[in-house]
Each structure stands twice: as C-alpha cells, then as structure tokens.
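Hi all, posting the design record for the shared folder.

TITLE: backbone redesign
STEP: 1 of 1
STRUCTURE INPUT:
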C-alpha cells in the first residue's frame, strides 16, 4: 500500500510538472556558480552595487551571474572565492 501511495505521488508530480523543461548539466553548473556568488556577497552584508563597486565588477555582470542569466567564468569564481576568504585584502588590492 505504501508503494502504491508513493507511486501515486510521483505520478501526480509528473502530471503537475508535465510542461517543465529538462535541466542540463550546464544549467546546474550555472546555478551553483550563481549561488556561490550570491552567498559570498550576502555573507559580506553588501548590496549588489556595493559589492560591484568594492571589488571592481560591473554591476550588470554581477546581477547576470547571480540570477544565472550568464555563467560566471572560472576566473570569476576563483576571484569570488578569494573575496570570501580575504575581502579586505582584495578590496585594498583593487582600490
């Protein structure tokens, strides 16, 4: 009986999401990068404009990365990781 109930739930979910799209590996990667960037910025207590200004990243680019409209390149992900570890040092270096 439990199996039948689970099967009904899965079937119902599939019916609800019947028009949903397939998620690609690239989309998952873009989403993970977006989450890292957003969490780093919010962890520092900065707005997008403040983060962009402090670390010399165009605010439109930052917004696109955070909203996963564009994939942040590898160098940008590395930069954000360093910012997360040493924000004051990075800010001084790019000032």
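Okay, here is what came back for every position:
SEQUENCE:
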């Amino acid at each position: 009986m439990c199996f039948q109930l689970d099967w009904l739930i899965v079937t119902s979910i599939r019916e609800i999401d019947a028009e949903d799209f397939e998620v690609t590996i690239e989309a998952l990667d873009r989403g993970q990068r977006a989450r890292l960037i957003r969490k780093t910025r919010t962890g520092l207590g900065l707005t997008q404009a403040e983060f962009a200004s402090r670390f010399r990243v165009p605010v439109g680019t930052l917004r696109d990365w955070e909203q996963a409209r564009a994939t942040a390149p590898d160098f940008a992900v590395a930069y954000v990781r360093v910012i997360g570890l040493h924000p004051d040092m990075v800010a001084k270096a790019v000032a």
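COMMENT: Residues 1-11 have pLDDT under 50 and may be disordered.
Let me know if anyone wants the other runs.
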